Each structure stands twice: as structure tokens, then as C-alpha cells.
Amino acid sequence: MKKGFTLMELLAVIVILAVVALIATTSIIQIIDRAEKGALEDSAYGIIEAGSVFYIDHILPETGKENSERYNFEVIENKFVNVKNKEEKLAFKGSMPKSGKLQINANGDTAIAICNRKYCACKSITETKVVVQKTGCEIDEETGEIGTKKDTTPVGVVISYLSGSLAPEGYLSCDGSVYKIADYPKLAESFKEGFGSYNYYGGDGTTTFAVPDLRGEFLRGTGGNSHTSSTGILEGSGAAVGKHQDATVLTIIGNTVEYLGFSPTKSGVTSSGWGSSYINSDSNGRYEAGNGWIRLSGKREGTAYTYPNVATARPTNTSVLYCIKY
Known about the structure:
Oligomer: single chain
Distance between the termini: 67 Å
Shape: flat
């Protein structure tokens, strides 16, 4: 009597189970996909129906007054509201789309363009059927016709993103990452045209390139400006586009065991060997400044004549995710 499986039989069973799991996973994904499309389509028809109710209540009574105004509704703060007054809301059957618009003309015809995470449901003013598609769509405000949504943002534009740690669609995080030129040809080509090579920010320049690393950086305008101080000195300038500049180190600050000295020479303070003018400090590493105290970053050294604290200026700020259009 045969007991157990042979190795070949066991491998065959594993392969069969893997195939079954793959088929099942694919089927589940397709079911979810169809459900997502169906839900968006249902919402679109529900919004159109709500628009018809709005037309009967608000627009129809005005048709005898040569009213040619188009009413536009849009998803704002998770509500489908009248763009004109932001108060009138459409109550409809279905789930709220991530984004979208509805237009109603004086004849009661409607155009709709709504999108969720993956699909868009579209219908022009002259059509009756909603079409669900992967590509975006938008309503022409003059004609009510549907066109493919176009992103006119130039490749290479850098934006400040405040909605999370992942770049939005169509953008890459400016974190110095290396990518294949073939995957983002327009962005790579823009670097080559602007800087003479694909690998200005990194990569091998042949098959790969890198995006700039702007983490922890402030962006600054290139060139010199026309603003001058009261003494006639130009107040601002920036390096060439794409060139990194190190921080400007402030006046050297020397921290001895008990005293704080400044260099170069300032009023009442000498710089020669830290001179004879100092500011008293307390046991907490704070230094007397008028009626208050200032504290320097870093540790106070226990040995005299060591100066560990060198400072740079940093204004109050909020971190953003810099992203570049590809």
C-alpha cells in the first residue's frame, strides 16, 4: 500500500495550487474592477437625475425669460455644489466621486465628467449615455462637449506638495532617486536640453538619470535682483538654475568655558585672540543678551579656547514634499 506523496507528486500539487490561486486572484481583481466601474456609472446617472430635478425646480420656470445661462456643479469638499454660490447642493443616489463636474443648460441638457480613483464617467451635453473610461475627461464650458483632460503643466515644473509623503499622479518626488530614461523620456530629455546631459543630477547618463534631491532644501530664484539696501548694496542673488549652494555660515561664534566671543570685530567686541570683550554665560549654556538670554546649539566644551558653535540662519518654516513633473 502506497503511503504519502512522492517529491514529484508534491511539486505537481504545489504548481496546481499556485495556478488556481493565480486564476482566483485575477478573477477577484476583475470582479472588483467591474464593481468599481459600475458604482461610478451608477453615481453618474444619479447625479444626472439630481441635475434634472434642479432644472425643474430652478431653471425651467425661467425659460420664458430668454435665459441662456449654464449651471455648473462641482465636487468641493466632498459635496456636489453649485459653483456660482457654493450653497446649493445636489442630493443624489450613489457615492460621492473623488472629483467631477456637472453642467446643465437652459434646455435641461446635461454634461457630466466625474472621476474616482481609477476611472472617469463622461457624457457630453448632446449624448444620453454615460461612458466609463480610464482616461480623464473634462467639460468644455462653452459647448458642453466632452474632451480628454489635458495637463498643460510643463515637464520639469517643481511643486510644493502638502498632502502626504507620496508624489501626486504625473510627478516624481525630488529625492535624488535614479530612474530609467526610457520610463520618463520627456523629463530626461528636458535635463539634457537644459544642462547638456541626462545625468546632471545623477544616473549613468546613458540608460538612467536622476531627479534633483531637494529634501531639506529651500528653493531660490536664479540671477541677481534689483533690490538695493540703503547703502546701495544689492540685496539678493542666486546661482544658475539647478546649481546647489551651501548654507551661508554666519559670523563665527566662539564658545569658551564661561564666555562667548564674536569675530570679526563688532562694536565693542574685538576679534584678536577673542580680545577682551565677552558676554557672560550661565551654567545652562545661555548667554546674556540685553534683558534676556540666548542659547547656542551644540555642547559647551570643558576646555578653554574651543569654539564648537558655528551657526547658519534658518527662518521659521514648514516642510513640504517637492515634486517634479515628468
